[in-house]
Amino acid sequence: MKVIGQHIQLNVSDTAFYRKLLTYLGGKVLSDDDGYLGIEVGQMSYWVFPVEAKHKDKPFNRRARGIHHIAFRVEKRKDVDKFYTNYLQTNSIPVLYKKPQEYPDFGDNYYAVKCEDPDGIVIEVFHRDS
Fold it and tell me: Domains of the chain by range and CATH?
């Protein structure tokens, strides 16, 4: 059986954060209606909804049950650096672990930069030699 990931739904406090991030990464807007957002990046679509009011006060913890991070693989190592400089720094988004770096525990030439969305979900942009 061959399986290809198709979509994920995120319930977040700031849908505009994802609109800006995903379109910067080349995403195509599929839907932007009634407060929710659908954007396709590669073969995966992201459906981003505002968190319901009754859940807004519940804190997110990426170490608890649920999603920890979302990773986007780029073609070239220099694309990680471009994302860091042209997107994260330009938009004053704090970077986890200070700057892009090698992660040898994840494989040879695994190079990534990580940040958090406004709720604490980690966003990773990485390159790895095939």
Answer: 1-51 (3.10.180.10), 67-130 (3.10.180.10)
Euclidean distance between CA atoms 126 and 99, whole angstroms? 12
Structure tokens at 20: 């800006």
Q: What is the pLDDT of residues 9-24, one digit of tens each?
A: 999 999 999 999 999 9
Three-state DSSP at 129 gives: coil
Is the Cα torsion angle 10, 100, 24, 5 positive or negative in sign? negative
Contacts of 105 (CB under 8 A, 6+ apart): none
Average pLDDT over residues 81-100: 97
Spell out where the chain has E strands.
7-12, 28-33, 36-41, 44-50, 69-73, 95-102, 111-116, 122-127
What's the full length of the chain, in residues? 130
Q: Is the dihedral of CA 50, 51, 57, 60 positive or negative?
A: negative
Query: How far is Cα 40 from Cα 51, in angstroms, rounded to an integer?
Result: 20
User: Comparing C-alpha atoms, which of 83, 16, 22 is closest to residue 7?
Assistant: 22
